[in-house]
Design goal:
Strand content: 25-35%
CATH architecture of the largest domain: 3-Layer(aba) Sandwich
Shape: elongated
Number of strands: 13
Distance between the termini: 51 Å
Helix content: 25-40%
Bound molecules: adenosine-5'-diphosphate, magnesium ion
Order of helices and strands: EEEHEHEHHHEHEHEEHEHEEHEH
Number of helices: 11
CATH class of the largest domain: Alpha Beta
CATH superfamily of the largest domain: P-loop containing nucleotide triphosphate hydrolases
Number of domains: 2
Radius of gyration: 24 Å
Structural class: alpha/beta
Length: 310
């Protein structure tokens, strides 16, 4: 698969602040890449450097093989962008907005077809200031698609939207991928990254602290899965005596760490052989959200310690 985006040792300084402190990643063409991080992590800075809207301090960046800063004019014909907090002229309708973009990009895209693609056909003639937050974002997506881009850059496309509107945007993003486009998405919603992205990079204070598929990140940075049942403390005691695995007991639930999948039957047999009543069997898996909160927390603790005097 060809590479759509390639970033090596990217640094961006604002005065003395290193907003991006040496970041590396690459995005294969035709995949969805999520840049996940809390506010101020450096998501917009990175996105706008890739779009050719901000100049990097140092490092090597290639988007579709081009340097976004020196070859921005060529690049802009091949990418689509929705900025964070997308806004538009208040009195303009989605149809007029698409027509306006069409003249900017010299394309002959049909406004009806494009607005249907983002499920906004019913609001084609509504004024921008009467659209809901989700509808405005959909218009942003439609405009980003006017030039039939190879890569779409979406900076927090669902922030502040209600769950229904977010799902509608997710459906459009899935379609972009189906059409073979590359999607570069920033978000601070964990489940969004988990649901949509082929690859995720977690960024915090301008550094990538974990990267890979959501599954890989959970496997490498997460805690092992657990077998969990409702049962008394006595059951935990029995299992500790009969198993080598770690056993936890809290609020009426007994949990056994499943470090090796092959131990699953052994653990279940021991629970049954204890003769102690149990119910409500479950398996518990670490989520990307747990991993994210733990990694960010550990980093912040570390930073506090290293800043502490003495
Ligand atoms: N134009 C700018 N001038 C100075 N500092 C900036 C500028 N833009 C962003 N920053 C700072 O850089 C850091 C990263 O910001 P940003 O890339 O917007 O993060 P995110 O999009 O992840 O919320 C923040 O500390 C922010 O205050
Ligand atoms: Mg941002």
């Amino acid at each position: 698969m060809p590479t759509a985006i390639e970033v090596r040792s990217l640094v961006k300084r604002y005065g003395t602040l290193a907003a991006i402190g040496g970041v590396d990643f690459s995005v294969p063409a035709g995949t969805v890449f999520a840049f996940l991080g809390p506010n101020g992590a450096g998501k917009t800075t990175t996105t706008e450097i890739l779009e050719g809207l901000r100049r990097r301090t140092s490092g090597d960046v290639r988007v579709l093989g081009l340097d976004p800063w020196t070859e921005g004019r060529t690049l802009h014909r091949r990418i689509g962008v929705i900025p964070q907090d997308f806004r538009f002229f208040e009195k303009i309708t989605p149809k007029e907005a698409v027509e306006y973009y069409r003249t900017l990009f010299h394309t002959d895209v049909d406004p009806g077809r494009l607005l249907a693609q983002v499920e906004l056909l019913d609001k084609m003639h509504a004024r921008f200031d009467t659209l809901s937050g989700g509808q405005k974002q959909k218009l942003g997506l439609a405009l980003a698609l006017t030039n039939n881009p190879e890569i779409c850059f979406l900076d927090e496309p669902t922030t502040g939207l209600d769950p229904h509107a977010r799902r509608a945007i997710w459906a459009v993003i899935r379609n972009l991928k189906r059409e073979g486009r590359t999607v570069f998405l920033t978000t601070h919603y964990l489940e969004e990254a988990e649901l949509l992205a082929d690859q995720v990079a977690i960024i915090h204070h301008g550094r990538i602290i974990a990267a890979g598929t959501p599954g890989e990140i959970i496997r490498i940075h997460g805690i092992p899965p657990r077998i969990s049942v409702e049962g008394p403390e006595e059951l935990a005691g029995y299992l500790r005596a009969h198993l080598t695995a770690s056993v936890f007991s809290e609020r009426g639930r007994v949990e056994v760490e499943l470090a090796d999948r092959r131990d699953a039957l052994k653990i279940l047999s021991a629970i049954e052989e204890s003769g102690i009543p149990w119910q409500a069997f479950e398996t518990r898996q670490d989520t990307l959200e747990n991993v994210f909160v733990r990694l960010v927390g550990q980093m912040d603790d570390g930073a506090l310690k290293s800043e502490a005097p003495g």
